[in-house]
Amino acid sequence: MFVFTIRRILQTIPVLLGVTILVFLMMHLVPGDAAQIIAGEAASQQTIEQIRERLGLNDPLPMQYFNFLLNALQGDLGTSIQSGQEVTEEVFSRFWVTLELAFYSMILSVFIGLIAGIISAVRHYTLTDALTMIIALFGLSMPNFWLGLMLMQWFAIELKIFPVSGWGSPEQIVLPVIALGTAGAAIIARMTRSSMLEVISQDYIRTARAKGVKERYVIYKHALKNALIPVVTVIGLEFGTLLTGAVLTETVFSINGLGRYIVESIQARDFPAVQGSVLVVAVIFIIVNLLVDISYRFLNKRIDLN
Amino acid sequence: MKLSLNIFRTFFLAVLFSLVLAACASEPNEGGEETEQDTGAEENGGESDSESSNGQDLTIAWSSDVKGIDPQGSNDVPSSNVQHNIFETLVTQDENMDIQPNLATEWEQTEDTTWEFTLREDVTFHDEAEFNAEAVKASFDRIRDEDIGSPRAFLYEMVEEVNVIDDYTVEFVTEFPFAPLPSHLAHNGGGIISPDAIEEDYAAMEEGEDPGSYIDENPAGTGMFKLQEWDSGNKIVLEKNEDYWGENPSLDTVTFQVTPEDLTRVGELETGKSDIIFPVSPSDTSRVDNMENASMYVQKSLSLEYISFNTQKEPFDDKRVRQALSMAVDKDQIVDGIMDGAATKAVAPIGENVFGFSDEVEGLPYDPEQAKELLAEAGYEDGFSTTLWTNDDRERQDIAEVVQQQLKEINVDVEIEVLEWGAYLDSTAEGEHDMFILGWSTVTGDADYGMYPLFHSDNVGEPGNRAFFENDEIDSVLEEARRAGDDAKREELYKEAMELLVEEAPMIYSHHDDYLVGVSDDVEGFWKHPNGIFQLQDVSISE
Questions:
Q1: In a domain, A8, yes or no
Q2: How many CB atoms neighbour CB B8 within 10 A?
Q3: In a domain, A219, yes or no
Q4: Neighbour tally for A120: CB within 10 Å
Q5: Inter-residue long-range contacts of B2-6, CB under 8 Å, 24+ positions, other chains counted
Q6: ipTM surpassing 0.85
Q7: Residues A51 and A107 in one domain
Q8: Which pLDDT tens digit goes with each residue over B148-157?
């Protein structure tokens, strides 16, 4: 287990290098010039040239990349072109907000998804099953920004139960988390249902029932644990979707999070900010995947991680 | 084998994720659309504690964050709006765009190229430095310093030197006679920064910091508000400057809150979380008007929305083709259909509130029949095909579709291409386009700024003349007009320039946008300047 973890961590190094190179090249090869964007439509050629020189955009590309890497290793992601602030600082202050948002949404998704999935599977081909799956299909099909706007219209503007926007207080958290977590709940519900159905029809479940084990115990102890492996995989992937989905949710509810920051930075061709934040997101993604792999072992001891 | 699959999967997902993010960059972003786009918003307190009881806290919700507080470090309207409250200029423009005293009490053009300003004597900066002629010199020396790389340096590039005559008299020497100098000094870029702060900023630069890093964090001006807090990407809070030299404002604090989504801003206004919201999308104005607690405030702007030709490319190198296309576009459809009436049809590049505008100049009429004749004369009886570029702005895309439809009537086949903002600015500066839609804001309120960058042959490409328009007659009129000392003479020259520009039609002058602001009924004394700046000095909140 320990060896496995160490090995996986070492394996992330080439992945991270690859990600940084790709992001770096993508940002530098797309048309658009940060100096021009900073200077604005009305600036003179000379002004733009001065800004370009100041930002180091005239250096050769490989040199800019190695400077970035060297500094990143020392925890310095550079200075944002747009705001002139430290990228490390800007990214991490927003990162916690997005992580919180994604985390609460994840909890909501897993909680509702699992319950709905299990109920559906246990009562399969009944009205309850059909209704749950129809609701799940709706949840999956609703774009999260639309759901966000609808929730805002009903619960914030008409009924005035929750605040319209912002992040921090418990009331402010409710609507964005529902908006972001619904699709995930739907996916997890559908995944849990099909995985459970598969497991329930297997021989060892029939054996367990034949032995007279209580139905509740059969479902939760024997069936669920084995049915969870594909679900956990989906949850891991879903976390990435949540971070991306957070872009829209953050925009709708005016949350100053990382998703919005990355999009705004890309639009402003703010290279250091984009590179820095994508690096942070990639690291998180890798960690979540590592956790998913490790959790397989807990769910099924026969899986050999080495 | 299993492990290498895992690596592959993780890598693939990480790449996929960054691709998704890159794709998101083409989402419309209200804030980044136009460099001089304004953004404003209103009042009322903080985030979670928005129910503050002492009352005089204004919250303005707007679409984009400021780029910086250093008035020499950025050139966008949201930043100007914050800077305006912290830093003051020597002179200022009133609602009619007339020049009024501010930090300078009087001024005089002593020779063709020299101007003398007498300064106010009882003024101190927020950091307690004293305001005097040396401070003025320090500010203008800094903005013209190449190491600073100020995006606003172009406003003062005609200034050759700034001389201290005595403690409270300062002299500006320009390279050539430059009549609009006071309008340029009234621009936010001419805000006077504390000389102590400037010194600290230079010291920070010595240590490898970027220019403006000290001033952004410790902005010391002479204005009626001081910086309390800047939570980047979220909000800026200003507090009253108790030692202000003029009349103190009624407001205790002003919060500029970033709310990027249009409908969320409307919701914040309706629930009272924000007191002023900006911009309101034209399609949401009736909703705001129907609110019990708020209403719309509309102000004509200094900006122009235009559909430009690449005048060096066939067939647009022929004046008759440009005129034909200008006559084939019905601007009423754009103003009423797309802007919901929240705009004024344009005749020429400048609107009625810009100095130099003449109401005697007539634009090209909407006349598809004559347009067809002109095309035939130019040898395009059967029309031609071309492309029209726009960025991913909602209104511009609608305009593109209207133009496409209308040009079809004269057999011109238009293909619309939507480009992402950064790429759009870049490619139009390079002249890769046939036709494109963009805006220009005459921030100084003087025709020189509205025409010289857009049409003088020195400014082809990136500096503003993206029509790649080169015309000796226009060049000489614009040069003469910026040098002429006498207002009447200048007005006459700009009238001539307007006539020439209508005749030459380097672009279709579409319309001048209105600023659409949603204002709570509790807010009193609010107005917005045509240059896009919120005027907060007389604002108070009634309960």
A1: no
A2: 11
A3: yes
A4: 25
A5: B3/A7, B3/A11, B6/A8, B6/A11, B6/A289, B6/A293
A6: no
A7: no
A8: 888 888 889 8
Domain that holds residue A40: 32-73
Cβ within 8 Å, pair A31-B423: yes
Taking 70 as the pLDDT cut, the residues of chain B under it are 1-54
A237 and A167 fall within a common domain: yes
Q: Which of A267, A283, A284 to mutate to test the interface with B (most CBs of B within 10 A)?
A: A267
* C-alpha distance from B390 to closest chain A C-alpha (Å): 15
Same domain? For A205 and A119 the reply is: yes
Kindly state whether residues A39 and A138 are assigned to the same domain. Answer: no
d(CA B84, CA B182): 17
Q: Are residues A130 and A214 in the same domain?
A: yes
Q: How far does B24 lie from chain A, in Å, by closest CA?
A: 6
Tens of pLDDT, residues B449-477: 999 989 999 888 877 899 999 999 999 99
Q: Which span out of A30-34, A122-126, A298-302, B217-221 was modeled with the highest average pLDDT?
A: B217-221
pTM: 0.80
Taking the CA of residue B424 and the nearest CA in chain A, the distance in Å comes to: 7
How far apart (Å, rounded) are the C-alpha atoms in residues B278 and A33? 28
In chain A, % of residues over pLDDT 70: 95
Of A47, A82, A266, the CB nearest to B154: A47
Residue B196: its pLDDT value, please? 95
> Nearest Cβ partner of B154 from A43, A83, A160?
A43
A26 touches chain B (CB under 8 A): yes
Q: CATH no. for residue A184?
A: 1.10.3720.10
Query: Is the minimum CB–CB distance between A233 and chain B shorter than 8 Å?
Result: no
If asked whether residues A115 and A241 sit together in one domain, one would say yes
* Chain B residues whose beta carbon lies within 8 Å of the beta carbon of residue A50: 146, 149, 153
Q: How far apart are CA B141 and CA A218, in angstroms?
A: 81
User: Considering only A23-27, A44-48, A163-167, B531-535, which range has the smallest mean pLDDT?
Assistant: A44-48
Asked if the C-beta of A67 comes within 8 angstroms of chain B's C-beta atoms, the answer is: no
Residues A180 and A102 in one domain: yes
| For residue A305, pLDDT beyond 80 | no
Q: Which helix (H) or strand (E) holds B418?
A: strand B412-419
Asked if the structure places residue A304 within a domain, the reply is no
Question: A43 and A124 share a domain?
Answer: no
What's the total number of domains in chain A?
Answer: 2
**Separation CA A265–CA B415 (nearest Å):** 30
A86 found inside a domain: no
